[in-house]
Amino acid sequence: MAKRQKTENGNCKKTFAMADPYQWPYNGDLRTSNTALIIIDMQTDFCGKGGYVDMMGYNLSQTARAIEPIKALLALARELGYFVIHTREGHRPDLSDLPANKAWRSKQVGAGIGDKGPKGRILVRGEEGWEIIPELAPKEGEPIIDKPGKGSFYATDLEMILQQQGIRNLILTGITTDVCVHTTMREANDRGYECVILDDCTGATDMNNHDAALKMVKMQGGVFGAVSDSVKIAGALKEAASS
To answer: Is 180 a catalytic residue?
Structure first.
């Protein structure tokens, strides 16, 4: 699942994970010090009963599918010493950061942002539905990026944190594949980060959208990065950490 390239004297120099359409990262520079696992929006509102996605009437199994693979990869990343970042989408209680068109659209599908739901006010910071699910709860020292939009860079300090930590490689997981994960991947790619998105660690409210989002990543030789899965990435993380 991982490939090591060696220097002429036999010392290990580069580590790659098997991915599509190219081995990731492109330059083989995979280290605990320059690689981060990002877990995007694994909140009750997006994958739990009584949350935003559930109230819209979507099949929760299609977003919850990512929970167990992420859980296993998260445990490994922590064990090996990789940097871990979590994100949450949500709005201020007074909704002063909620665009009018986003508010209007949410009401059209019967789950108005800020309205009262089974898990508190929908997509509002501090409410039960806004919290990250217990299975993937952040540990002390793991940054949580609170964002008002789809992308994790917009109106947040994510880029500052990545720069301060010397991170260049991003492993993208979470939900939903076609919206918040994809938006974050595009933002990161434009900023020069080397990205990989994991098929089994992501999910969407419509699996056709999930598949299409992954296909888009692979176009033009990897226009936004590469696509892999948790098993292949886990192998590469172990190899890199042992060098």
So the answer is: yes
How many whole angstroms from its chain centre is CA 211?
16
Catalytic hit among 41, 178, 199, 229: 41
| pLDDT, tens digit only, all 243 positions of the chain | 566 565 444 555 799 999 999 999 999 999 999 999 999 999 999 999 999 999 999 999 999 999 999 999 999 999 999 999 999 999 999 999 999 999 999 999 999 999 999 999 999 999 999 999 999 999 999 999 999 999 999 999 999 999 999 999 999 999 999 999 999 999 999 999 999 999 999 999 999 999 999 999 999 999 999 999 999 999 999 999 998
- Which residue has tokens 């892999």? 228
Q: How many other C-beta atoms are found inside a 10 Å radius of the C-beta of residue 88?
A: 21
* Catalytic pick among 147, 150, 218, 232: 147
Known catalytic membership, residue 195 = no
Choosing from 45, 47, 178, 180, the catalytic residue is 180
Rounded to two decimals, what is the model's pTM?
Answer: 0.95
Q: How far is CA 76 from CA 69, 72, 82, 123, 161, in A?
A: 11, 6, 9, 30, 22
- 41 classed as catalytic: yes
Task: Classify each residue of 34-50 as buried b or exposed e, where b means 16 or more C-beta atoms within 10 Å of its C-beta.
Answer: bbbbbbbbbbbbbbbee
Beta-sheet strands, E only, within 65-183: 83-89, 116-117, 120-121, 144-147, 169-175
Q: What is the DSSP string of 33-75?
A: TTEEEEEE--BHHHHSTTSHHHHTT--THHHHTTHHHHHHHHH
